Amino acid sequence: MIDFSKLDKTIHEKGRLAIMTLLASRAAPWPFQDLKGELEMSDGNLITHLRHLERAGYLESEKITGEGRPQTRYLLTPAGRKAFQDYLALLEQIVDLGK
Fold this sequence. Notes:
By secondary structure, this protein is an alpha+beta fold. It has a single domain (7-98), classed as Winged helix-like DNA-binding domain superfamily/Winged helix DNA-binding domain (Arc Repressor Mutant, subunit A). It has helices spanning 9-12, 14-24, 32-39, 43-55, 78-98, and strands spanning 30-31, 59-64, 71-76. A three-stranded antiparallel beta sheet has the order 1-3-2.
């Protein structure tokens, strides 16, 4: 039987799952504004989820300054990528069991 307690609660919340999915979809960092536009989240909601994931060690941020407005970009850490892959593997087991 599947141990459902192994579902990573940090990732499992739908906003954070969406963020992790986007960040895992490419190796390049995602600018905050691009994440916000893609996910259609408010600034406050998005930053709350990003901070939660960052505290868990799943992503890192970098501030880019220079011409124009400063920009914050986000990228999965190796630990975040592994946690997401483990999360997906457990979901696949759940789906297979339900078939």
